[in-house]
Amino acid sequence: MEKQRIVVLGAGESGVGAAMLAQKQGFEVFVSDLGAIATQYKERLEELNIAFEEKQHTAELILNATEVVKSPGIPETAPMIKALKEKGISVISEIEFAKRYTKAKTICITGSNGKTTTSLLTYHILKNAGLNVALAGNIGNSFAALVATADFDYYVLEISSFMLDDMYAFRADISILLNITPDHLDRYDYKLSNYAASKLRITQNQQSDDVFIYCADDDETLKAMKSVKINSKIVAFSIRKEIENGAYLEGNNLHININLKEELTMSITELALQGKHNVYNSMAAGIVAKILDIKNSVIRESMSDFKNVEHRLEHVGKISGVEYINDSKATNVNSTWYALESVNPGVILIMGGVDKGNDYSMLKDLVREKVRAIVCLGKDNKRIHEAFEDDVEVIVNTFSANEAVQVAYHLANKGNTVLLSPACASFDLFKNYEDRGNQFKMAVKEL
């Protein structure tokens, strides 16, 4: 019998991981990337003798595949994907492919905002409880590479809507949908309902002993749930109302009740992650821990000593009574809304960069309420000026992280917060959002 042929499109972390797993499972493997392949991934493919091409897609080497694993970044409308679909060749995501070869339990986390933080926190609690757990997906390691090279009992997977679009038989043991706000709508015909439907694919194939965890305060989630049949147990979290089976807030106290197990109660002042949106993230992670029967003492300790991801509401330091926060990972308006929502009034907001057709109107109320001045950091700041000229007294243009920090330092008074939360991509002045965040931190240290 002829060897089945797996073609992997895209040679980033997920693509190379899929290729490693396909090779381990005895498939003939070929990797194709329309762009240049990063040195580290090229070296890994060469070490493993996996055939690949870069800067092109050769049709005759791809259209003879038994199955294709595609990178989440490649849209359905790409000519090669259309050609594969016309030939009836199955196109799946790396996550779908990897799940076939592991019996490990999967905890899958999606949402427009907060999924990285919630994934990291969930992983932190499970690891502290002594579980044999790995973190993968949209963050850090490729799920497929870990399945190929290691043996874990649990995987915490951060999952984007693009990954969900190419998942068909995949089944999450525990799935979490944190929230739905407009993002990546260019991939969904500019319809929020299409994007929401994509997010709810996290529940597909779940059975009665699986669990789906959602936010009872998120209107878009509630709306989208009406059009999907969910077969798993459903657990909610809310900061507005009491939840019998799930998590809720009463005053400053967080309560988690799951199936009449011993209730977990802790004050939100003890949480390592502060701000309303982080109460939601902590609730979601805490519910997972309770479902897995982790001791309350471990959950409490883990939720209070957790360190958040770099460049995401990261505290850089306090100078002359002014707090400096690096939120360079906020590359869309929603993320900046979350950042502003989590800090006290008296903000010098550093924002700007490459604008992806941003609608700044959702920020106006928070800017009016909390922001004293805006320091623009980008080559073209016209749209920020237009959006906020009636809401703040001072809007200044700067063209480097150093200049932005110097200007913010002179504008800030004791008790204020200088917040870098750009709401835009970074590649006009920086390599990426990490480079932008690192330059901001260096500039703060030099004050």
Question: Which features does this protein show?
Answer:
alpha/beta, UDP-N-acetylmuramoyl-L-alanine:D-glutamate ligase, 17 helices, 447 residues, Rossmann fold, Protein-Tyrosine Phosphatase, Chain A
Shape assignment: globular
Distance between the termini: 68 Å
Alpha carbon gyration radius: 23 Å
Strand content: 15-25%
Mean pLDDT: 91
Query: For the largest beta sheet, what order do the strands appear in spatially?
Result: 7-8-6-9-10-11-12-13-14
CATH superfamily of the largest domain: Mur-like, catalytic domain
Give an overview of the whole structure.
- This protein is of the alpha/beta class and 447 residues long.
- The chain has three domains: 5-94, Rossmann fold (3-Layer(aba) Sandwich); 102-305, 3-Layer(aba) Sandwich (UDP-N-acetylmuramoyl-L-alanine:D-glutamate ligase), CATH 3.40.1190.10; 314-445, Mur ligase, C-terminal domain (Protein-Tyrosine Phosphatase, Chain A), CATH 3.90.190.
- It has 17 helices and 20 strands.
- A nine-stranded mixed β-sheet has the order 7-8-6-9-10-11-12-13-14, with helices on one face. The chain has a six-stranded mixed β-sheet with strand order 15-16-20-17-18-19, sandwiched between helices. A five-stranded parallel β-sheet has the order 3-2-1-4-5, with helices on both faces.
- Strand 12 (246-250) and strand 13 (253-257) form a beta hairpin.
- The longest helix has 16 residues, at 276-291.
